[in-house]
Specification:
Order of helices and strands: EEEEEEEEEEE
Radius of gyration: 13 Å
Structural class: mainly beta
Number of helices: 0
Strand content: over 45%
Number of strands: 11
Shape: globular
C-alpha cells in the first residue's frame, strides 16, 4: 500500500518561496509508470494541477505556474518536493501530493496541507 504525506510550513509571507516535501512509503519514486504530482485547491475553487516529476526525474508543469514552479526529488529518502517562488495571497490553498499513473488516474493522495500566504 503506497502512502504519500505532505510536510512543510503552513504560513508563507508574500514574495517568498513556498517549499513543500512529499514523503512516499510503500513504493519507490523511481518505479516506472508513475508521475509524482502536486495539486492544490484554493478556497472555494476547483483542484488545480501544478506539475509532476516522473520516475526518471523528468518534470512537467502547468503553463500558468511554470515560471514560478520547480519540482525535484531525493531518491535516497524517497521524497519529492515543490518550490513555488514569489508567492501572493492567491497561492493560498490546500496543497496535495499524489501519485498519477500512466493511465492519467490518481490512485493515491496525501491528506493535504494548508498553506496560507499572508504577511
Amino acid at each position: 500500500q503506497v502512502q504519500v504525506q505532505e510536510s512543510g510550513p503552513g504560513l508563507v509571507k508574500p514574495s517568498q518561496t513556498l517549499s513543500l516535501t512529499c514523503t512516499v512509503s510503500g513504493g519507490s519514486i523511481t518505479t516506472s509508470g508513475n508521475f509524482w504530482s502536486w495539486i492544490r485547491q484554493p478556497p472555494g475553487k476547483a483542484l488545480e494541477w501544478i506539475g509532476y516529476i516522473d520516475s526518471t526525474g523528468g518534470t512537467r508543469y502547468s503553463p500558468s505556474l511554470k515560471s514560478r514552479t520547480s519540482i525535484s526529488r531525493d531518491t535516497s529518502n524517497n521524497q519529492f518536493s515543490l518550490q513555488l517562488t514569489s508567492v501572493t495571497p492567491e497561492d493560498t490553498a490546500v496543497y496535495y501530493c499524489a501519485r498519477l499513473r500512466g493511465t492519467w488516474e490518481i490512485d493515491y493522495w496525501g491528506q493535504g496541507t494548508q498553506v496560507t500566504v499572508s504577511s
